[in-house]
Amino acid sequence: MPKGYWIGHVDVTNAENYPEYLNAARPAYEKYGAELIVRGGKYEAMEGEVRSRHVVIAFESYEQAHACYNSPEYTAARKIRQANAVGEILIVEGAE
After folding, report:
1. Residues of the chain with pLDDT under 50
2. CATH of the domain at 68
3. Which terminus, N or C, of the chain has the lesser number of Cβ atoms within 10 Å?
């Protein structure tokens, strides 16, 4: 079964409060077995427009990635993120 991934491209608009999101998301990540593959870090934009922060999170399956995103735990965290950042979050199925 292929893994599921969250891919996020984010511009933090309120760096002072953004750590609240990271703390609030932790219980959802733990509950759904999230594995942080990329979280910020050095990058080079090779093509197109990009945001300043990039995140890749792996889950056991595409369904597990959706379950985490739609969970009550992450719904609360998502509201904090949306108040302190703008960006795009994709859920994609990995290659087999």
Report:
1. none
2. 3.30.70.100
3. C
